[in-house]
Write a structure and sequence with these properties.
The complex is a heterodimer.
Chain A (H helix, E strand, L loop, with lengths): L1 H4 L3 E4 L5 H6 L7 E4 L9 E4 L3 E5 L4 H5 L2 H6 L1 H8 L4 H6 L2 H6 L11 H7 L27 H8 L2 E6 L2 E6 L19 E7 L6 E7 L10 E9 L5 E9 L6 E2 L2 H6 L6 H14 L10 H20 L3
Parallel strand pairs in A: 1-2
Antiparallel strand pairs in A: 3-4, 4-7, 5-6, 5-7, 8-9, 9-10, 10-11
Chain B lengths: L16 H6 L14 E7 L5 E7 L1 H4 L4 E6 L23 E2 L5 E7 L2 H9 L2 E6 L6 H6 L14 E9 L2 H6 L3 E9 L11 E6 L5 E5 L4 H11 L7 E5 L14 H13 L3 E4 L2 H7 L6 E9 L5 E11 L7 H10 L10 E8 L15 H18 L3 H6 L7 E2 L5 E2 L4 H12 L1 H4 L7 E11 L14 E7 L5 E5 L8 H13 L6 E5 L16 H28 L6 E4 L2 E4 L2 E7 H12 L2 E7 L19 E12 L6 E11 L6 H20 L5 E2 L2 E2 L17 E7 L21 H13 L2 E2 L6 H12 L5 E2 L13 E3 L12
Parallel strand pairs in B: 1-12, 7-33, 10-11, 14-15, 20-21, 27-30, 31-32
Antiparallel strand pairs in B: 1-5, 2-4, 2-6, 3-5, 7-15, 8-13, 9-10, 9-12, 13-14, 16-17, 18-26, 19-20, 19-25, 22-23, 23-24, 26-27, 28-29
Helix pairs in contact in B: 10-18, 14-15, 15-16, 17-18
The chains are: A alpha+beta, B alpha+beta.
The structure holds flavin-adenine dinucleotide and iron/sulfur cluster.
Chain lengths: 309, 794
């Protein structure tokens, strides 16, 4: 159906992102293809030792609760549990969360509002209102779970008319607010494959104004594995909501791996994270504040994961 | 009345609670009628633009479209205040803000109407936009309105009570500060909705979620040129108002006009974005305050300047301007006082009354300034307030009459409950407590349009079965006025609540009530209800006394029974007694009214501020500030509120907690924010207000002096407790980390910025740098009221 109807059709899972966007006429599909009836998409299989497979249709509430996730992949449980409100988590799916449209407060507005200010290139127009000089869209990747999935080294299975492929979550995204998914419109994300936990320590910290309801204006996902001698064997730091795709901080690997984690090395990685964070003036709060917080939150998340005070 | 009260003062459920929890209550948007049309409004696309042409042909051609109207169909100006007749429903000549209604389409369904809206072709000529008070004072261009004090300055006020110059000269310490209180909106859960039906007999009926059916009645009759007797306004149960539904609003006028044209019922239900445009919310106010005190902390003089950013229309703005200067002298003794205020028209949705109407802003400045003064002269924040609380039965320097006042007790209780003295300046870095107090009206003492008539009336009819029909124009907006009405009548007549049948807020059926604003309903409607019920009670008791062959004084009425106090077996049921009274007097009906005493002072502008009674609040906030992120967690709020007698303590606590909730939202995050000349965040997601997760524990302490004029001694609870919350939070943040955030909202980034200034050794403050050098007119000089606090030694 998807391939038949081409660009006029869209996939809907929980609809918590899609329907509000349709209401504001950011999306104007002629047909919707619902995934709700596909039982295979609703399962969580495997365990911490062999790795976990989460069906794309599993709700965020279901991701936030199981003991296996809470104990072995706590960052994922926390990120899923921090999405919006409980009503939304009961409906919204993990697949939808990974495919979530990028956000910008010049774009997530009604048709009348956008027409009044002048349409932007993400929909109906041809300039960017945030960075008018440039030629690209800077809308922010705002998924809570995407940075965590990348930090955990997870992959996704995509099935489409041209067959099936498995790609790392990291490769699902590109740095373009207008077209941030590398997945084709007629490809369905069916499941997420998370590698064995094997002693992984993971933390997710989310910056938002309120204790509920709000999208992240910064997310920091950290995953660490410490060897028996305390040296760091695996380190990933990924930032959410400060770029059009999740921002991987490569310095986490280069600085931390092979060494014991110290307050100094944490500070270096946090500085690198703040440099890489490119918040734009298109979400809640003040830009400079979000950048400063990238530093504070990265340091806090790393310390928590490493067990430093 | 016997001394012991049966219903008053008891924590009873609301009389309309069941309908609400079961979903039976029908709000305006729940109404549906045969042949009903749905209408949508087109908002202006520019902040300020002349409308050169509106082409409706393409929209008209859309199947399902029934009628289209524009400003040309609504030429008559109306407005709530007689001095601000500046609205027409749909703007005709020009649009004055992005979203300003300029056309409306009625169609067979909402979707068709919405599609038709986009097919309307508007030709605009852009005009310079004024987006702030600063713009108004510096920018050239065609004024937004064609009236006002000068250019885009809508209103200027300057008043001086006593000689402030000698007041400041007598002070040992004087300080000047500037503050900014950001604008914010009411955010009622129920978006405004209306159904209008103009029937073949030429009668227009409106079902609308309004707080003031009487004002809608007046405005519609004027705007549509229909005799008032041919207009009927029914206020449907209101899902929250907070002041946002007290103006007659454009969608009400548009729906009525569309129904007149089509002869069919027409519904308009605003979207959340449109509610942000309907607004009439809190004015952004820039202010300057100068206060002089003696060594002991007593105030010798106070001078306030306020600059209100009013938005595009007048609304209640003239009153709002006066209110930013009216109530400062009502809490602590102020012997000399000067006030200068101005309101500017700007190309934004109109500001108006929001919970506390014009008084939270100066209260924010005043209570922070007192905190700074207390520190500077080395006395405690408690003492600088507690020692100088106004006297009961006194007058303020600006001629406001004070009757009951238990602010002192409120301060004592809230300080004790919170352990303020053991915590202030003593908690570890990052934690702090702050104190602030306030007062508020129990009903505006003067009507909005000048007249000598009562502000409210209650009518009661008693049937042969003992049923008591109570009719009043008052409107329950969730605050519980229906319940207060029922408790009051039942208490006086000695009947149970299930005997009471209420009919409210219907301009055809119910006697006048001015509306649910200015915390007036309990006080005024309550007194009118007591009067009406007492008249009937007299007839019934006399008839019963005759039958029981006892003097009236020997009888009491309680629990649907009229009995001999000394021998309860000698009794009649209420219904029996009512029948006897009916046999004797004919049909049983009575009317009671309430008119406030004459309270206005001898000067122009004295109409704003007087109230038959003032409520008082004292609040302590305890916060935990993260010095690394600047994030503020409010840990607990203690609030003591002098509401007079609590008619129902549950409802008063509910109102108090709701006020704290709203006050915290204004303190910490709410912002009616504009970018590129239009509202930046007109949605529930992006306009930040507290969620349940952000709401701290609230400990409410009710202080209940019996007010001499209030019904059963009651005053108010709906608005006053909001006022002290924002300054208490600001003072607590200072106590926690030593930085002053002199503007709202107090956000994490501002706290961090101030902390960075502190680390650099600079003044640790974020707030406005100053106020414009605006020249106010010469102040009207008024002799202080003879019973006002005196300047000692002067
Ligand atoms: C008020 C509000 C607050 C929110 N807060 C947050 C938040 O804090 N954090 C956050 O991360 N998100 C938030 N969201 C966004 C969203 O609701 C969630 O991300 C949710 O997980 C989306 O899942 P869904 O199943 O509802 O997706 P849908 O709305 O059904 O779909 C979202 C997008 O993904 C596509 N899609 C869905 N499933 C698949 C699939 N299996 N294969 C391919 N494409 C697919 C759809 O075509 C659509 O483009 C919020 C949304 C709202 C309305
Ligand atoms: S970043 Fe620019 S182009 Fe992208 S949605 Fe925002 S305004 Fe539009």
């Amino acid at each position: 159906m998807l391939s038949e109807r081409g660009a006029e059709a869209m996939i809907v899972a929980g609809g918590t992102d899609l329907f509000p966007n349709m209401k504001r006429r950011q999306f104007e599909p002629k047909s919707l293809v619902s995934l709700r009836a596909i039982a295979e998409l609703q399962r969580v299989t495997g365990d911490a030792d062999s790795g976990l497979t989460i069906g794309a249709g599993v709700t965020l509430a279901q991701v936030s609760r199981p003991p296996v996730i809470a104990q072995s992949y706590p960052a994922l449980a926390r990120a899923a549990g921090d999405v919006s409100t409980s009503q939304l988590r009961n409906t919204g799916t993990i697949g939808g969360n990974l495919c979530l449209d990028t956000r910008c407060n010049y774009y997530n507005q009604t048709y009348h509002w956008r027409k009044s200010i002048g349409f932007c290139m993400k929909k109906d127009g041809d300039i960017c209102l945030v960075a008018p000089g440039g030629s690209r869209c800077w809308a922010a990747s705002s998924s809570d779970t995407a940075p965590v999935m990348i930090a955990l080294g997870a992959s996704v299975r995509l099935i489409g008319p041209r067959g099936e492929r498995v790609i790392p979550v990291d490769e699902l995204y590109r740095d373009d607010g207008k077209d941030h998914l590398t997945k084709a419109a007629d490809e369905i994300l069916t499941e997420i494959l998370i590698p064995p936990a094997n002693g992984l320590r993971s933390v997710y910290l989310k910056l938002r104004r309120r204790g509920s309801f709000d999208f992240p204006i910064l997310g920091v996902a950290v995953a660490l594995r410490l060897a028996g001698d305390g040296a760091c064997a695996y380190a990933k730091v990924v930032l959410g909501a400060v770029g059009s795709r999740p921002v991987v901080v490569p310095q986490a690997e280069s600085i931390l791996i092979g060494n014991r984690i110290t307050p100094e090395s944490v500070e270096s990685v946090a500085q690198a994270a703040a440099r890489l964070a490119k918040p734009m003036d298109n979400t809640d709060s003040v830009l400079s504040y979000r950048k400063k917080m990238a530093h504070v939150f990265t340091a806090r998340a790393l310390k928590e994961a490493a067990g430093l005070p | 009345m016997t001394d012991e009260l049966t219903l008053i003062g008891k924590p009873l459920p609301k009389v309309d609670a069941l309908g609400k929890v079961t979903g039976e209550t029908k709000y305006a948007d729940d109404l549906a009628m045969p042949r009903m049309l749905h209408a949508k409004i087109l908002g202006c696309h520019y902040p300020h633009a002349r409308i050169k042409h509106i082409g409706t042909a393409r929209a008209q051609a859309l199947p399902g479209v029934v009628a289209i109207i524009t400003g040309a169909d609504l030429p008559v100006k109306y407005g709530n205040l007689p001095v601000s007749q500046d609205e027409t429903g749909l703007a005709g000549d020009k649009g004055r803000f992005v979203g300003d209604p300029i056309a409306a389409v009625a169609a067979v369904d909402e979707e068709t109407a919405e599609r038709a809206i986009d097919l309307i072709d508007v030709e605009y000529e852009e005009l310079p936009a004024f987006m702030s008070v600063e713009d108004v004072l510096t920018k050239e261009g065609e004024p937004i309105q064609d009236y006002g004090d000068q250019g885009n300055v809508h209103k200027m006020v300057a008043l001086e009570f006593g000689d402030t110059e000698s007041g400041f000269a007598a002070a040992d310490y004087v300080r000047e500060d500037t503050f900014f209180y950001q604008g914010n909106t009411h955010l009622p859960m129920e978006e405004h909705a209306v159904v209008a039906h103009y029937t073949a007999d030429g009668k227009l009926t409106l079902w609308s979620s309004t707080q003031c059916p009487h004002y809608v009645h007046r405005a519609l009759s004027k705007a549509l040129a229909i005799a008032p007797s041919r207009v009927r306004i029914i206020a449907t149960p209101v899902g929250g108002g907070f002041g946002g539904k007290s103006d007659p609003l454009p969608h009400e006028v548009a729906a009525a006009k569309l129904s007149m044209i089509t002869g069919r019922p027409v519904k308009i239900a605003l979207t959340r974005e449109e509610v942000f445009y309907a607004h009439r919310g809190r004015h952004p106010v820039l202010m300057w305050a100068k206060t002089g005190v003696r060594k002991d902390g007593s105030i010798t003089a106070m001078h306030f300047k306020t600059f209100l950013d009013g938005g595009a229309y007048g609304s209640y703005g003239v009153a709002s301007t006066y209110y930013t200067g009216a109530l400062q002298p009502v809490t602590y003794k102020v012997p000399t006082y000067k006030f200068e205020g101005m309101r500017a028209f700007t190309n934004k949705p109109a500001c108006g009354p929001k919970r506390g109407h014009g008084t939270p802003q100066p209260r924010f400045g005043m209570e922070i300034q007192l905190d700074k003064i207390a520190e500077a002269i080395g006395i405690s924040p408690v003492d600088i307030r507690r020692k100088f609380v106004v006297d009961e039965n006194s007058y303020t320097v600006n001629h406001l009459r004070i009757t009951s006042c238990a602010l002192g007790e409120c301060i004592d209780k809230v300080a004790a409950a919170s352990g303020f003295n053991d915590k202030h300046r003593k908690l570890p870095f990052g934690k702090g407590v702050g104190l602030a107090c306030s007062s508020y009206l129990s009903g505006a003492g003067l009507p909005i349009y000048w007249n000598n008539m009562p502000h409210t009336s209650v009518q009661i009819k008693i049937d042969r079965g003992g049923g008591v029909a109570v009719l009043c124009g008052s409107t329950d907006i969730g605050q519980g006025s229906n319940s207060v009405l029922a408790y009051t009548v039942a208490e006086v007549l000695g009947v149970s609540l299930d005997a009471i049948q209420l009919t409210v807020s219907d301009t055809d059926l119910t006697p006048i009530d001015l509306g649910s604003y200015s915390s007036r309903v309990t006080f005024m409607m309550g007194n009118a209800a007591i009067e009406a019920a007492s008249k009937l009670k007299k007839l019934i008791m006399e008839a019963a006394a005759e039958k029981l062959q006892l003097p009236v004084e020997a009888l009491a009425a309680k629990n649907n029974s009229i009995y001999c106090i000394d021998d309860e077996r000698r009794s009649l049921t209420f219904a029996q007694a009512a029948q006897l009274a009916e046999a004797k007097h004919g049909g049983l009906g009575a009317m009671g009214s309430y008119t406030p005493p004459k309270l206005a002072g001898p000067f122009r502008g004295s109409g704003v501020g007087p109230s038959p009674a003032y409520s008082y609040s004292a609040c302590v906030a305890q916060v935990d500030v993260d010095p690394e992120t600047g994030e503020i967690k409010v840990e607990k709020i203690w609030i003591a509120h002098d509401c007079g007698r609590a008619i129902n303590p549950l409802l008063v606590i509910g109102q108090t907690e709701g006020s704290v909730y709203m006050g915290l939202g204004e303190a910490l995050m709410e912002e009616q924010d504009f970018r590129r000349n239009q509202h930046k965040i007109p949605s529930l997601l992006d306009y930040k207000s507290l969620t349940m997760m952000d709401m701290p524990e609230v400990e409410t302490i009710l202080v209940e002096p019996i007010d001499p004029e209030g019904p059963f001694g009651a005053k108010e609870a709906g608005q006053g407790p909001l006022l002290p919350v924002p300054p208490a939070v600001a003072n607590a943040v200072y106590d926690a980390v030593g930085v002053r955030i002199d503007e709202l909202p107090i956000t994490a980034d501002k706290v961090l910025k101030a902390l960075a200034l502190k680390a650099e050794g600079k003044e640790p403050r974020v707030g406005p740098k100053g106020v414009p050098s605006f020249v106010f007119p010469e102040p009207v000089r008024v002799e202080p009221h003879p019973q006002a606090p005196k300047l000692r030694g002067a």
